[in-house]
Amino acid sequence: MRGKTMSLCALSVLAVALAACSGNSKKVDNVDPNVFPTDYKREIFVTLTKKLDDPTGVRDTGITEPMLRQAGQEQRYMVCVRTNSRNAMRLYTGVKERVAYFYGGHLNQLVDATEGQCANVNYQPWPELEKYCLSKSCS
């Protein structure tokens, strides 16, 4: 009998946990996916400096303002980013374009741009990324 009681308790705990999870998904459904990303530069900066092999000494940087564009079947805010960064051997790899996708006003994905995806965009200089330094002695 004791085994059945423990099994019922375990099932009860599992049911409560699942109910809690399903309750959280309703909150996500209420998010407006196309909230304008006000802190887009900081979010991309943090993600990009973690993603690059060598986030220091980046050249030829550029960033666009957020723009509402088609992403699959839906419209999403996106930002194009251009960099010329160094690999792990500290050699420049050439200019590369990436696209940052936003959902609910926050960075959702940062991926390599497909050919032409960032064509005819208005890049603005991004000196903050070019000045990034990992050492306290950087000026």
Tell me what you see in this structure.
The chain has 139 residues and is an alpha+beta fold. It has 2 domains: 1-30; 40-130, no CATH class. The chain has 3 helices and 5 strands. Strands 1, 2, 3, 4 and 5 form a 5-stranded antiparallel β-sheet that branches. β2 and β3 form a beta hairpin. The N and C termini lie far apart (72 Å).
Based on the model shown, name its key terms:
2 domains, alpha+beta, globular, 3 helices, 139 residues, 5-stranded antiparallel β-sheet, single chain, 5 strands
List low-pLDDT spans: 5-20, 22-26
Secondary-structure element string: HHEEEEEH
Number of strands: 5
Rg computed from alpha carbons, rounded to a whole number of angstroms: 22 Å
Tally of alpha and pi helices: 3
The whole-number mean of residue pLDDT values reads 85
Share of β-strand residues:
25-35%
Number of domains: 2
Q: Give the oligomeric state of the chains in this entry, treating copies of one chain as homo and distinct chains as hetero.
A: single chain
Task: Report the principal-axis shape.
Answer: globular
* Structural class by secondary-structure content: alpha+beta
Specify the helix fraction band. 25-40%
Describe the biggest sheet?
5 strands, antiparallel
Distance between the termini: 72 Å
